[in-house]
Amino acid sequence: MTVLRQFNYVFQMQFLRNSGNLMFFSIIQIMVSLGIVIGFTYLFDNPEKNTILFLATGAPTLILIITGLVILPQQIANQKTEGYIEFIRTWPVNRGLVLAADTLSWLIITIPGIAISTLVAHYMFDPGYDISWTILPVIILIALTSIGVGYGFSYGLSPLASMALSQVLIFGALMFSPINFPMERLPEWLQTLHHILPLYSMAEVMRASMAQGAFTAGIEHYITLIIWGILGFGGAILILNRK
């Protein structure tokens, strides 16, 4: 059986098994993205144009983060509890193909939320989008990093620990990460931490792709995301290959 046929079979099996949940998660993503774009503006009496632009470019980033670091680990935790991960280990296919097929499914469910939040922000607030040709590669890079890290810790930790960590991560991403506001507002020690973690780099490359006239992203942010993605997927494949 060729690699492409194996991928096709695994993708169909995984997608059909999770199709009901994926539809539900896609709707949740749309609601979350609209909550960020519209709801967060109520925190300000008269939000400035730059504030709106941060929220409008932060919503797609948060959708990808929530998918990879929150929803996916919770699904992996459930699959571990049900014994489905052990069932996957019996499949006569490369473990990397299993993760690739799953990753494609998770990537698909983020598209409606990203598209709708961007359109709503544009027509309601006109935040000043200046979209670069890099937008699609950047979305894929952020998605792969987020999903890779999510796989890494959800396969490496117990179901309870990975679910707890996913809750901590979403709380940190929403409240203490420079995604919807500038980095300079955070304390110095937290700024240092965000130069190591991938969340700040995700926000920077997304902003630079959606508003290239207002923001730029250095090469170090792309390197940071690639390193975290490789560590996440590599760790997950190693764990899945264990007998």
Question: Can you give a write-up of this model?
Answer:
InterPro entries: ABC2_TM, Nod_factor_ABC_transporter. It is found in: Membrane. The chain crosses the membrane at residues 21-44, 50-72, 104-125, 131-153, 160-179, 222-240. One of its GO terms (cellular component) is membrane. This protein is an all-alpha fold and 243 residues long. The chain has one domain (3-241). Helix content is 77%, strand content 0%. The chain has 9 helices and no strands. It has helices at 3-37, 49-82, 84-89, 95-125, 135-156, 159-175, 188-194, 199-210, 219-240. Helix 5 packs antiparallel against helix 8, helix 5 (135-156) runs parallel beside helix 9 (219-240) and helix 8 (199-210) packs across helix 9 (219-240). The chain is globular and about 55 Å long. 37% of the residues are buried. The model has no long low-confidence stretch (mean pLDDT 88).
List its traits:
ABC transporter; mainly alpha; transmembrane helix; Nod_factor_ABC_transporter; membrane; transmembrane
Largest sheet: none
Low-confidence stretches: none
Averaging pLDDT over every residue, what do you get?
88
Q: What's the helix-strand series?
A: HHHHHHHHH
Structural class: mainly alpha
InterPro entries: ABC2_TM, Nod_factor_ABC_transporter
Main location: membrane
GO molecular function: ABC-type transporter activity
Keywords: Membrane, Transmembrane, Transmembrane helix
